[in-house]
Structures are given as C-alpha cells and as structure tokens.
Amino acid sequence: MATQDRLLVIDEGTTSTRAIVFDHGFAQVALAQQDLTLAYPEDGWVEQDGEEIWERTLAVCREAIETAGGVSQIAGIGITNQRETTLVWDRTTGKPIAPAIVWQDRRTARVCEAMKAEGHEAAVQAETGLLLDPYFSATKIGWILDSVDGARARSEAGELAFGTVESFLIWKLTGGQVHASDVTNASRTLLYRLGLGKEGGWSEAMAALFKVPMGMLPEVKPNAADFGMSDESLFGAALPILSAAGDQQSALVGQGCLAPGMAKITYGTGAFLVANTGAERPYSQNRLLGTVGYELPGGGAMALEGSIFNAGTVVKWLRDDLGLIDSAEETESVAAGLKGNGGVFIVPAFTGLGAPHWNADARGTISGLTRATTAAHLVRAGLESAAYQTLDLLEAFEADGAGIRELRVDGGMVANDWLMQFLADICNRPVLRPDYREMTALGAAALAAMQLGWLAPKEWQDRPVQGIRFEPKMADAERKSLIKGWNDAMRRTLA
User: Which residues lie across from 274 on neighbouring strands?
Assistant: First the structure.
C-alpha cells in the first residue's frame, strides 16, 4: 500500500483555481490550474459563477491527484481562498441562488455610506476590527437577500446558507455534510466579534445591524482543524479536510511570520500587507484592519492588515485592454529601459481605493502626460503604482505603532526584479523574495501538516528559506521627488 505522505492544497484565487500537491518536506510535486471567469455586469460590480468555481476546483484537484501518483498518496486536503467573496446557496440543492459577489465588488457602497452617516462605523470597528466598506461580506449578503425573489423569507426559514469560498467548497466536498468556515475568513465578514478562541465568535449585534439571520452562518473553526471528510465519490477515496485559511493569512503562515512584528505582502490581483501583532486585539487609528492572523488549537495571533485593491490587475489592464505589452514578463525590460518615469503616475483606482484611503467612489487617474510620454512610461507607471501604494500602507502601519523593518514578498508580481528593487528603493526597506513563491498554498499545506501532527509551529517559523534580498539603493533626493509626484497624483484622484 502506498504511503499517505502528501497533501493536496486547493488554492482558490480570484482569477484562477489551482490544486497543488506537496510532499512531506513541502516540495511541490504536482500543480493543476484553470482560469475563472469574472463578470462585470455594471460599473463597480464584480461577479463569479459559484458552480463554475466548484466544477473547475474539482477538475484541477483530480488532475493534480493523478499527476502526484493517485489518491492513495494523499493524507488530506488544505484550502486557501480569496476572502470576502460572498455566496448564498440552497441547503437542499447546494446551488447558489445568485452569482458570487467578489471581494472587489462595490455595489453596496451607498449602503455603507448611509450606515456611516448614521454613526455606525465606530461600533462596527470596535466589534469586528473592520471598517464599513463594500469590500466585506455582510452588505453583500444583504444585497443578495433583498435582490433575489423570496430569498429573505427563505433565509429566515433556515433554507439558505451563507459562506465565503472556502465554506462553499467544504460544503461541496463533504456532500453538504459540513457547513463550516475558519476564523480568518469569518473575521472578514463584518459579522464576527474579533478575537482568538472564546473571545471571538459570530456577533448577534452585527448580524442584527446588517439584517443577516444567524442561522445562515457557518460553524467557525481554527485554521488547523477537522473540517470533515470529502465524499468518496469525488476522488475515489474519502480525504480529511485538515485546514482552511483566507489567502492573505495563509501567506502569513507560509512566510513563517508566526512571531509578533513579522509581516508579509502578497502581490496578486490586489496586494495585501499583513503584520503579526501577537495575541492582543489590534485597534487601528489609521484606517487599517484588525483581523485574525491565524489560530491553531494551541493558540494563534492577531494581525493588522492593509489592502490594495489593484496591483496585478494593472499589468493585466496594460496587456489585455491597452495592448501595450504582450506578456506580464515584458514589463520588467520595458521599465528597466527607461532612465526615469517621465513624471507619469498612474493611480489604479479601478474599483475604488483600499487602505488607508477607503474611498469607494475613487476612479483611476493618469497624471503627468506630455508629448514625450510613451507606452513604456505608462507601463513603468503601472508597475510603480504597486510600490507607492505599499509605501502608503507602511506609513499607516508606522503610525499605528506596527513598524515593519523588512518586507517578505510573494505572489505573481514579485518575479519582476526591477519592481522588487524599485519597491525596496521607494519603501527604503529590504525586500526578501523566497525562491518558492506560492506562499498562499504553502501556508495551507503547513496548517494541514500541523493538524496531522507532522509539524510544530516553532519548527515552521524557524525553517531556513532560500531566496533573494533586495537592498535600497536609491538616493534620498530621487526617492523624495518620486514620492512627492505620487502624493500629488493621489490628491488629484481624491479631489
């Protein structure tokens, strides 16, 4: 009989679903990936088909398992996912009653503004650690319940279930036997009382405020926990679901940031800076988010987070919509081929601005155009925007007392050496890039291994990581001039 010494990780992103198999030493042995469709039916709306998410997830899992040598090799499943994306489904059929509303979606901006005007934000932040913004799940749930005929009555009758993507996948994997979420995803809903262990839990006050029936909500578990068994018919054998975590918290674990003061930033569709703040509940004075970093049976950590809504989407826009580049890889040589940015700045507020601005109405701007501006300047400005937005976050973290001395980076954009050096220069901090960059999936694998008893948290934190360190090299005068240009561009955007 084959040894079950491998872990299957479902990495459910915004634009693709992937299945990765890791061996006992956390080396990647198989990967399968399929793209996911995003729909934009109205300005500021972003949707996905929940059934497509499930079907493509199932397909990549089967492919990865086969590539890795079959289901007899697999000890269990870990899940990591795009957070805040909201699904409501029928408990009998398991079918979503509406398209999934993606985390980027801004359709409930007016609702959030009205609640702010009514004076609710302070109470919401005190209870949940979050701000009133359409980014989070609660107002998305309300929109579905009020927009689908009969949905609110059905929700109150206990016929409907809510979940973020990992919860939906757990439901599907277990054949509807388990309706559960993990603490990191739960803490991004605006419905969770922020805290570790018994201090955290679904908030009746928030559920009442957002008019979400408590009976819709999943059971909340630590990140390493028993999430049930997959249905035997899916893969040829029942597999235990061992871990679940939101993608950014999973990357925090993947980067080994298990001690207070350690931080990582992931550059994917958006970019997310998360700093481990220890066991104490964080409270930001600078419009950052308090959230659960991770929770294990033996303890966990809280975190501060800053969210950039558009990072990798800028490169996709330059390639697919403007046709200025043929591939994302091309941006590195294009940017490096210029002596400077030509005074051009792009503020990519395609779907509003995240931390620390939290402006749902902001839209993207390009400033500094002259007759000398070329396509290359626009490409470079698009890359630079990720670094400037990161600096805005770092300054907010500093003001909250969470000084970050170095940036541990991961995600698709970090393959660009030019961008990593520019990031180190603008932020005036070392940037550490690991050779293996799938930190989100790696974190889910590490959590699953902890649940199996293969690994102790301290052992994971202390493991040596191979990678490259980018040190700041830019002269202070040049850095200050570029930052001034960015701040001017931001003021125009917010005017």
Answer: 264, 305
CATH number assigned to the domain comprising residue 118:
3.30.420.40
- Tokens describing residue 475: 């002269």
At residue 458, what are phi and psi to the nearest 5 degrees? -65, -35
Dist. CA 88–CA 161, nearest whole Å: 6
Residue 413, amino acid: M
Q: What is the pTM of this model?
A: 0.87
Conformation bin of residue 35: beta by default, left when phi > 0, alpha when psi is -120 to 50 = beta
The continuous run of DSSP H or E covering 264 comes out as strand 263-267
Which stretches of 218-360 are DSSP H helices?
232-235, 247-254, 312-316, 330-336
Structural domain contains residue 305? no
CA max distance for the chain: 70
Q: Mapping DSSP to helix (H, G, I), strand (E, B) and coil, where does residue 250 land?
A: helix
CA pair distance 470, 434, nearest whole angstrom = 11
* DSSP string for 279-291: SSPP--SSS-EEE
Q: What is the mean pLDDT of each run of 10 residues along the chain (495 residues)?
A: 83 93 95 94 93 97 96 96 95 96 92 95 93 93 96 96 97 97 96 93 96 96 96 96 96 91 88 90 87 89 92 94 94 95 95 85 93 96 96 92 88 94 96 91 96 91 90 96 96 92
Q: How does pLDDT run across 207-224, given as a tens digit for each residue?
A: 999 999 999 999 999 999
In the block, which residue shows the tokens 């909500």? 217
Residue matched to tokens 């792009």:
346
Q: Give the span between the Cα atoms of 305 and 397, in whole angstroms.
A: 9
The token duo for 41 is 């039916």
Would you call 424 helix, strand, or coil by DSSP?
helix
Tokens 């699953």 belong to 448
Q: Which amino acid is at 384?
A: E
Alpha helices (runs of H) in 428-472, residue ranges in sequence order:
439-452, 457-461
Q: How far apart are CA 207 and CA 224, in angstroms?
A: 26
Q: Which two tokens stand for residue 187?
A: 């803490």
Instruction: Taking the CA atoms of 98, 17, 259 and 460 in sequence, report the sign of the dihedral they define.
Output: positive
Number of structural domains, the chain?
Answer: 1
Decide if 73 is inside a domain.
yes
DSSP-derived pairing of the beta strands 271-278 and 263-267: antiparallel
Residue 463 lies in a domain: no
Q: Which domain holds residue 90?
A: 6-247
Q: Which residues contact 214 (CB under 8 A, 6 or more apart)?
A: 202, 204, 207
